[in-house]
Amino acid sequence: DSGVTQTPKHLITATGQRVTLRCSPRSGDLSVYWYQQSLDQGLQFLIQYYNGEERAKGNILERFSAQQFPDLHSELNLSSLELGDSALYFCASSAHIQGLKEQFFGPGTRLTVL
Amino acid sequence: AQTVTQSQPEMSVQEAETVTLSCTYDTSESDYYLFWYKQPPSRQMILVIRQEAYKQQNATENRFSVNFQKAAKSFSLKISDSQLGDAAMYFCAYRSAGDDKIIFGKGTRLHILP
Predict the structure, then answer these.
(1) What is the pLDDT of residues A19-46, one digit of tens each?
(2) How many whole angstroms separate alpha carbon A113 and alpha carbon B7?
(3) Residues 12-51 of A with CB under 8 A from B
(4) What average pLDDT does range B64-86 have in this prediction?
(5) For residue range A40-85, what is the model confidence (pLDDT) as tens digits?
(6) Does A8 reach chain B within 8 Å, measured CB to CB?
(7) Contacting residues of A for B102, CB less than 8 Å apart
(8) With contacts defined as CB-CB under 8 Å, which chain A residues touch B33?
(9) Minimum distance, in Å, between the CA of residue B19 and any CA atom of chain A
(10) How far is CA A58 from CA A16, A33, A37, A45, A61, in A?
(11) Among the four residues A47, A106, A107, B54, which has the most C-beta atoms within 10 Å?
(12) How many helices and strands (H and E) does chain A possess?
């Protein structure tokens, strides 16, 4: 158990809908990262938040957005869902320290868009 | 842009034997970190081993060791005394020291034959 929790574990929805994925980082970790794992694109970095502020952006679609709340949990919002958004979405967290900042991954949320 | 390449989509090894998974990467930076992650059928991403680019000594974690060749930009993973529980997808990954996002390879699926 990495200490990172994600809810829900599974989500099935229809095209055009909007969903919210939730992540609670390890106690004390200020950074939260979101990754998408799909069959065709592999594992890709989406976005990072540090202590409530957006820190880095990767291959995140404009239909997707995220935020980190004062209690440090984060939510990833996916809207106008398409079939191709079906994927495993991982959240990871790390302590913001210099040097090797190991990222601990949550169990993921499996999103299926029908 | 940095890239990570795993040229072996699938590999098989007999239980108790040794197997080596290959990984090459491309970067113009001199300070970075390399990782091997394991993803078993549970989908959890588990850090197996990590290597700091400034360290010449190859990292070792029990039965797992790496062969880090910085000039060749090669980072292979050796698993000794393979066990059934080692069956998983293995991802090679890169992170710049000045960045937080992790760049993953496409993965190698490892099968352990009893």
Answers:
(1) 999 999 999 899 999 999 998 778 999 9
(2) 31
(3) 31, 33, 35, 42-45, 48
(4) 97
(5) 778 999 999 999 999 999 989 999 999 999 999 999 999 999 999 9
(6) no
(7) 33, 35, 45, 103
(8) 100
(9) 23
(10) 23, 10, 13, 5, 9
(11) A106
(12) 0, 11
CB B2 within 8 A of CB B101: no
Model confidence at A8: pLDDT above 90: yes
Reply yes or no on whether the pLDDT at A4 is more than 70: yes
How many secondary structure helices (H) and strands (E) does chain B include? 0, 12
Residues 6+ apart with CB under 8 A from B38: B45, B46, B48, B86, B88, B89, B90, B91
Q: Is B6 helix (H, G, I), strand (E, B) or coil?
A: coil
pLDDT for A1 equals 82
B100 and A48: CB-CB below 8 Å? yes
pLDDT at residue A28 in the model: 87
Chain B residue nearest residue A38, CA to CA: B106
Residue A65 structure tokens: 């957005």
Q: List Cα–Cα distances, B50 to A44, B61, B82, B93, in angstroms.
A: 19, 9, 19, 9
Residue B107: C-alpha distances to residues A42, A113, B40, B46, B90 (Å): 8, 24, 12, 13, 5
